[in-house]
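Need residues for this backbone.
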C-alpha cells in the first residue's frame, strides 16, 4: 500500500473569548460515534505522515503514589492537543477507576481552547486504530484468523479495528480466566464485530498462535506469552499491552527473529520491555527496529516484504495518535 495522503490542512475558527463557558465536552458515547475505525485509521495515517510534533510524554510522581502524565502534540497553524492522565492505584480499594484521562484540543494560532474530550474513550479507540494502521503495511492481505491475547477493555476495540483493515474470517480470544474470556467475547460482538465472523475462545495458547495469521496482545504480563516456536511463517504479531521496561508479551527468540517495527522509536526504545530486555541482553541492537509507523505511512519503508516474513509491531502509545483522533472528533462535531 502506498503512503496515506497527507490531505489539506483544515482551518478551524477559534472560539470567541466571550463564549469560553460554552466549551463543548465530548463524552465517551460521542467519541465512539465520531471515530468509526475506517475513518479513524485514515486520519491517523494523515497525522503520523504529516508534520505534527509530539515530544516524549511527561511523567510526574505526586503524593499518595498518584502519577500525573502529560502527553502534548501539535501542528503549526492547526491544533494543539494535550492529554492529562492520572494513575491512582489506591482507587481500586475504593471501587473507583485507577486511571482517569481528559483531552483538551486548542487552536494552535490563538491558543484558545476548542473542546474537552473523554480521554479514556479516545485512548482506547486510537490505540486500536494505530495497530490497524500498522497492520495495513505489515500483515498479509489474505490474513483470515485473528487471535486476541488478553481479555481486558482493549480486546473489543482491537478485534473491530483489525477487522476493519483485513477480511478476517475468524476471531479467537485467549485469557487465563474463562469467565473474563466469555465476557470479552460478548463485548467484542457488542462493539460491532460482524455477525458472520465466528468468535471462539482459544484453548491452549501455543496451538492458537500456530493457527493465527494476526496475533494481537493487549496484556500487562511481565513474562513472555507468545513464543517464536508457536508462531508460523507469515504471521503478524501486534504487541500493545507492555508499556513498561519490566513487561513482556513476546519471548527473546521471536523478537530476535521477526522484522521489528514501532509506533515511535523514541517511545518504544525508552519504555518497551519487549525491546529493552533483548537489547540489554545483547540479543539485538536498537538498529534492529526497521522503521517507525511514520516511515511506513510515508512509504519510506515497504513494510512486509515477503509472504513468509514474521512481522512484529510494538506500540507504547503516542500523543500523535491522540491528536489525530481528537482532530477527527472535532471535524465531525462541527460537521453536525
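Answer:
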Amino acid at each position: 500500500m502506498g503512503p496515506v495522503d497527507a490531505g489539506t490542512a483544515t482551518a478551524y475558527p477559534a472560539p470567541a473569548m466571550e463564549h469560553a463557558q460554552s466549551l463543548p465536552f465530548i463524552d465517551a458515547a460521542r467519541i465512539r460515534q465520531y471515530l468509526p475505525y475506517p475513518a479513524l485509521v485514515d486520519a491517523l495515517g494523515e497525522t503520523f505522515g504529516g508534520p505534527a510534533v509530539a515530544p516524549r510524554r511527561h511523567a510526574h510522581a505526586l503524593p499518595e503514589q498518584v502519577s500525573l502524565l502529560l502527553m502534548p502534540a501539535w501542528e503549526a497553524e492547526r491544533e494543539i492537543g494535550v492529554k492529562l492522565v492520572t494513575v491512582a492505584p489506591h482507587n481500586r480499594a475504593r471501587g473507583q477507576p485507577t486511571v482517569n484521562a481528559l483531552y483538551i484540543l486548542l487552536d494552535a494560532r490563538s491558543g484558545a481552547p476548542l473542546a474537552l474530550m473523554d480521554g479514556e474513550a479516545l485512548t482506547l479507540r486510537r490505540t486500536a486504530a494505530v495497530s490497524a494502521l500498522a497492520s495495513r503495511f505489515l500483515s498479509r492481505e489474505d490474513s483470515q484468523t485473528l487471535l486476541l491475547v488478553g481479555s481486558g477493555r482493549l480486546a473489543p476495540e482491537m478485534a473491530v479495528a483489525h477487522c476493519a483493515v483485513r477480511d478476517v474470517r475468524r476471531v479467537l480470544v485467549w485469557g487465563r480466566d474463562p469467565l473474563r474470556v466469555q465476557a470479552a467475547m460478548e463485548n467484542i460482538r457488542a462493539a460491532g464485530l460482524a455477525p458472520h465472523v465466528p468468535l471462539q475462545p482459544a484453548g491452549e495458547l501455543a496451538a492458537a498462535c500456530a493457527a493465527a495469521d494476526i496475533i494481537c496482545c493487549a496484556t500487562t504480563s511481565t513474562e513472555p506469552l507468545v513464543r517464536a516456536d508457536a508462531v508460523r511463517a507469515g504471521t503478524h504479531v501486534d504487541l500493545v499491552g507492555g508499556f513498561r521496561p519490566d513487561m513482556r508479551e513476546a519471548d527473546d527468540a521471536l523478537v530476535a527473529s521477526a522484522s521489528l517495527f514501532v509506533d515511535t522509536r523514541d517511545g518504544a526504545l525508552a519504555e518497551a520491555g519487549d525491546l529493552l530486555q533483548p537489547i540489554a541482553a545483547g540479543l539485538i541492537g536498537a538498529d534492529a527496529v526497521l522503521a517507525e509507523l511514520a516511515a511506513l505511512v510515508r512509504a519510506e519503508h515497504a513494510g512486509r516484504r515477503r509472504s513468509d516474513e514474521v512481522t512484529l509491531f510494538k506500540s507504547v502509545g503516542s500523543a500523535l495518535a491522540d491528536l489525530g483522533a481528537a482532530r477527527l472528533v472535532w471535524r465531525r462535531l462541527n460537521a453536525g
